[in-house]
C-alpha cells in the first residue's frame, strides 16, 4: 500500500511538528554578534606649560604650575574646563557603583543619631543647648530656665521645646544658624562662641568662605538683634570682661598669626581700643577669662616652647587642665593610655614644681578601650561636676559628667549603635505617655557593659612596630570578630604625623560599613604626631619628616607580615598633612598599597612653602621646613609627593578629595593627579580620581555621608571585601 508523504506530515503529533519547525529555524540561525565590552574611560590630560624654578643651585620644571595662577584669567578658564573633565571622569569610572553607593549611604544615614540635640549645659539660671529642627541643615542655639527644666524632656519629642503637661513654651531661641548661612553665602560654620556673664549678649565668629577668615559678631539675646559693634574680621580668640560690658578679642595678621588684642565696649560708639601687639613673627597671642570672670589672662606662646605645672612619671604628659573653685582636673597621657584625675585646691604655694603623686590625685573611671579625652564646656565655676567626652575605637563618643568630690559618673549622651538610637538623659518626664514612648528610645547601660562598648562585636589590639631605625611605632587595629581571618582581610591604614597632633582614633560610624564587610581598620601613630610627647613630634618634622614616612611604611609592612591584612589588599588614608604622609609612602613603596584615600591633601610642599598662595604661619614652616635653609630645602625635595612620583610604575588606585573653597588649594590635588597619570603606567583597574566639593563637607552630616559612601564604594571596587 502506498502512503502519501504529505499525509504522514499531517498525521504527526503537535510536538513533533514543533520540533521540525525548530530544526528548520536552527538551520538558518546566526548567533548575534557579541557586543564589545565598554571601553574604560580615559583620564583627562590638562595642558602642560613648563616653568623653571631655581634655588640653592637646584633647578626644576613644573609643567602644571599654571593651575595655581589665580590672577590669570586664561589659566583659570583652562582650569575650569579641566575640573569639569575630572568630574565627568570620576562619574564615569564610578558609574558601576551607583547602587552600592546608594546602599552605603542608606547604611550610614541610618546610623546618624535621631535626636540632633546637644546635652544641655547649665550656667547660672539657664541651661543652653543646640538642636536641629526637622528638614533644616543647621542647628539653632536655645536656652531655658533651670527652674523649668525638670518638667521638660528634650528628645525626639517635644522637638520645639514644649512642656506637654502645661503646654507652656519654655524655650528661648537665641540664634538660628540657618539664617546665619544666608548672611554668609549659604554656609554656616562657627568657630568661637561665648555668652556674656550677665547672659545678655552672645559673641561668636562665623567663617566667611569668600574671604577665608572668621568674622566676629555680637547679638543682643533680649532683642535678638545684632549689635552695631564689634564686627571685626580675622578674629581668632574672644573673652568677656567687666561683667559683660566689654569684649576683648584677638585678630590675626595676613599670615594668620594671632598678634593683636582689642577691647570693645558694648553699646559704645567709640572705636575699639588696641591693647597689645606682638611684634615677634614666631610668637602667638591668645587670651582667656578666668572662670569667675574676675580676670582675663593674656598668653603668648610659640610652637617650640612650653612649660609643664607638674612633675610626672617618665613618658607622661599633661594634655589638658580644667578647674573649679575646689578642684583641679588633669587629663594625663601615660604612653598610649589616657587618664583623668582630680586634685583638691588650693595647691601648695612656694614649693616650685609640684610632684603629682604628693597631691593625692583621685583617678576617675574610664573604659578599657578609651584612647582620647576632651574637656567639655564647664562654665559653672562653683560646681563639683565636670563634663568630658570619652572616645574609643570601639565605643561611640560618650559625654560624661564626673563629680570630682566623690568620683561618681554618669553618661549624659551616647549613641547606641546596636539600636541605632542616641541616649540623652535630660530630666524627668512629666507624662506617663511620654515615658512609654521614650522607653524604646533610651537604652540604660547594663552592669556588664556600663560604657556601651561594642567589644562584643568588634575587637581592638595594640602593637609596637619596629621602624627603620629601631624606634617602636604604636599601631592600633580594629576589626569585626565574625570576619577576621588570617591572611585574608583587606585593610585601611590611617596616618597623620604632623603638628604634634594626636591621630584621631575615635569610633566613626561610617567605618562600620567596612568593618562589617571584613575590613581591618588600622591607625599608625607615626613620629611628627602627638603620640609620645614633644620629642616624638620633633623627630618627625621638618628635616626629619622622612622618619614619619618610614614609620608609616613599617606599619604597612607589619600588617601584611603578621597576616593581619592580606598582601595586595592594603589601602592608605590621610587627611591634610596626613595626605602628604600617605602619598610620600606610596612614592617610595608603591607595591605595598592597593589603593589610597587622600582628603584635601598637602602634596606640593616645595612650591607651596616657597611661593605660598594661601597664608602660611611660622608653625607651618617649623613643621615642614624652611626652603631658605639649604638642609631643609633638600629634605623637602626628598619627601615632596609631587616631586618624587616614580616613573614607569604601576601606581595604586587613588581617590583624592578636594574643595573649591578658598580655604583649600584645589590646584595641589589637580597638579598631583595630572603628574601621576603622566609619569606612571596607565592601568584602568587602578584609576586616579578627583572628587571635588564646593564646601567643607564635615560641617554637613548628610554631605559627609554622601562623601563617605563614595570613598567606601571606591575601596570596595578597587580592593574588594
Automatic annotation (TrEMBL):
* Recorded GO MF terms: serine-type endopeptidase activity
Pfam families (alphabetical): Peptidase_S9 (PF00326), Peptidase_S9_N (PF02897)
For this chain's UniProt record, which GO biological process terms are given? proteolysis
Name all Peptidase S9A N-terminal domain ranges. 46-316
UniProt keyword terms in alphabetical order: Hydrolase, Protease, Serine protease
Protein family according to the UniProt entry: Belongs to the peptidase S9A family.
**Cited InterPro entries:** AB_hydrolase_fold, Pept_S9A_N, Peptidase_S9_cat, Peptidase_S9A, Serine_Peptidase_S9A
* Location of region: Disordered: 31-54
Official protein name in the record? Prolyl endopeptidase
What does this protein do, in the record's words? Serine peptidase whose precise substrate specificity remains unclear. Does not cleave peptides after a arginine or lysine residue. Regulates trans-Golgi network morphology and sorting by regulating the membrane binding of the AP-1 complex. May play a role in the regulation of synaptic vesicle exocytosis.
Tell me which species this is from. Punica granatum (Pomegranate)
Q: What is its EC number?
A: 3.4.21.-
Query: Which domain of life, per UniProt?
Result: Eukaryota
Q: What is the lineage of its organism?
A: Eukaryota, Viridiplantae, Streptophyta, Embryophyta, Tracheophyta
Report the residue ranges that make up the Peptidase S9 prolyl oligopeptidase catalytic domain in this protein. Answer: 509-679
Amino acid at each position: 500500500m502506498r502512503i502519501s508523504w504529505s499525509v504522514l506530515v499531517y498525521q504527526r503529533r503537535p510536538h513533533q511538528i514543533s520540533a521540525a519547525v525548530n530544526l528548520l529555524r536552527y538551520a538558518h540561525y546566526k548567533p548575534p554578534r557579541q557586543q564589545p565590552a565598554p571601553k574604560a574611560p580615559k583620564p583627562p590630560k590638562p595642558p602642560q606649560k613648563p616653568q623653571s624654578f631655581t634655588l640653592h643651585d637646584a633647578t626644576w620644571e613644573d609643567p602644571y604650575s599654571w593651575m595655581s595662577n589665580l590672577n590669570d584669567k586664561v589659566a583659570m578658564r583652562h582650569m575650569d574646563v579641566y575640573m569639569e573633565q575630572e568630574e565627568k571622569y570620576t562619574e564615569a569610572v564610578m558609574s558601576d557603583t551607583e547602587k552600592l553607593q546608594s546602599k552605603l549611604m542608606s547604611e550610614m544615614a541610618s546610623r546618624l543619631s535621631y535626636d540632633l540635640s546637644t546635652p544641655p549645659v547649665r550656667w547660672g539660671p539657664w541651661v543652653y543647648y543646640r538642636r536641629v529642627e526637622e528638614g533644616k541643615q543647621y542647628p539653632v542655639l536655645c536656652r531655658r530656665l533651670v527652674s523649668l527644666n525638670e518638667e521638660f524632656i528634650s528628645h525626639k519629642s517635644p522637638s520645639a521645646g514644649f512642656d506637654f503637661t502645661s503646654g507652656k513654651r519654655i524655650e528661648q531661641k537665641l540664634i538660628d544658624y540657618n539664617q546665619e548661612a544666608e548672611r554668609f553665602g549659604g554656609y554656616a560654620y562657627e568657630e568661637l562662641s561665648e555668652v556674656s556673664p550677665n547672659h545678655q549678649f552672645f559673641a561668636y565668629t562665623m567663617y566667611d568662605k569668600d574671604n577665608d577668615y572668621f568674622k566676629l559678631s555680637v547679638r543682643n539675646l533680649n532683642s535678638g538683634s545684632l549689635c552695631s559693634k564689634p564686627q571685626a574680621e580675622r578674629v581668632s580668640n574672644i573673652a568677656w570682661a567687666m561683667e559683660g560690658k566689654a569684649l576683648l578679642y584677638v585678630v590675626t595678621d595676613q599670615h594668620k598669626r594671632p598678634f593683636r588684642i582689642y577691647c570693645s565696649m558694648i553699646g559704645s560708639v567709640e572705636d575699639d581700643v588696641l591693647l597689645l601687639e606682638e611684634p615677634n613673627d614666631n610668637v602667638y597671642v591668645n587670651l582667656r577669662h578666668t572662670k569667675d570672670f574676675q580676670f582675663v589672662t593674656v598668653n603668648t606662646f610659640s610652637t617650640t616652647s612650653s612649660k609643664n605645672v607638674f612633675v610626672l612619671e617618665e613618658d607622661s604628659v599633661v594634655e589638658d587642665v580644667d578647674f573649679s573653685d575646689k578642684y583641679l582636673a588633669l587629663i594625663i597621657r601615660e604612653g598610649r593610655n589616657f587618664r583623668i584625675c582630680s586634685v583638691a585646691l588650693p595647691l601648695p604655694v612656694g614649693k616650685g614644681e609640684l610632684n603629682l603623686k604628693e597631691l593625692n590625685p583621685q583617678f576617675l573611671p574610664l573604659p578599657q578601650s578609651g584612647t582620647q579625652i576632651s574637656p567639655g564646656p564647664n562654665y559653672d565655676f562653683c560646681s563639683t561636676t565636670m563634663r568630658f567626652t570619652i572616645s574609643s575605637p570601639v565605643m561611640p563618643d560618650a559625654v560624661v559628667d564626673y563629680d570630682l568630690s566623690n568620683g561618681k559618673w554618669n553618661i549624659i549622651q551616647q549613641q547606641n549603635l546596636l539600636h541605632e538610637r542616641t541616649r540623652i538623659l535630660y530630666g524627668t518626664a512629666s507624662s506617663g505617655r511620654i515615658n512609654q514612648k521614650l522607653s524604646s528610645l533610651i537604652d540604660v547601660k547594663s552592669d556588664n557593659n556600663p560604657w556601651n562598648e561594642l567589644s562584643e562585636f568588634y575587637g581592638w589590639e595594640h602593637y609596637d612596630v619596629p621602624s627603620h631605625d629601631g624606634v617602636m611605632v604604636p599601631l592600633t587595629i580594629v576589626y569585626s570578630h565574625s570576619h577576621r581571618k588570617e591572611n585574608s582581610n583587606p585593610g585601611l591604614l590611617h596616618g597623620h604625623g604632623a603638628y604634634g597632633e594626636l591621630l584621631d582614633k575615635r569610633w566613626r560610624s561610617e567605618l562600620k560599613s567596612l568593618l562589617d564587610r571584613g575590613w581591618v581598620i588600622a591607625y599608625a601613630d607615626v613620629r611628627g604626631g602627638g603620640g609620645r610627647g614633644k620629642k616624638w613630634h620633633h623627630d618627625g618634622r621638618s628635616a626629619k619628616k622622612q622618619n614619619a614616612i618610614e614609620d608609616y611604611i613599617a606599619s604597612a609592612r607589619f600588617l601584611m607580615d603578621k597576616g593581619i591584612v592580606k598582601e595586595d589588599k592594603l589601602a592608605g588614608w590621610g587627611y591634610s598633612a596626613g595626605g602628604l604622609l600617605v602619598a610620600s609612602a606610596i612614592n617610595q613603596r608603591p607595591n605595598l598599597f592597593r589603593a589610597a584615600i587622600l582628603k584635601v591633601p598637602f602634596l606640593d610642599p616645595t612650591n607651596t612653602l616657597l611661593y605660598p598662595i594661601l597664608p602660611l604661619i611660622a608653625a607651618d614652616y617649623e613643621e615642614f621646613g624652611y626652603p631658605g635653609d639649604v638642609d631643609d630645602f633638600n629634605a623637602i625635595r626628598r619627601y615632596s609627593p609631587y616631586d618624587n612620583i616614580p616613573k614607569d610604575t604601576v601606581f595604586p588606585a587613588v581617590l583624592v578629595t578636594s574643595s573649591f573653597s578658598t580655604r583649600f588649594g584645589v590646584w595641589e590635588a589637580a597638579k598631583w593627579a595630572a603628574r601621576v597619570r603622566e609619569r606612571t603606567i596607565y592601568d584602568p583597574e587602578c584609576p586616579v580620581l578627583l572628587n571635588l566639593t564646593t564646601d567643607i563637607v564635615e560641617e554637613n552630616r548628610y554631605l559627609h555621608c554622601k562623601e563617605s559612601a563614595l570613598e567606601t564604594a571606591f575601596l570596595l571596587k578597587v580592593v574588594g571585601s
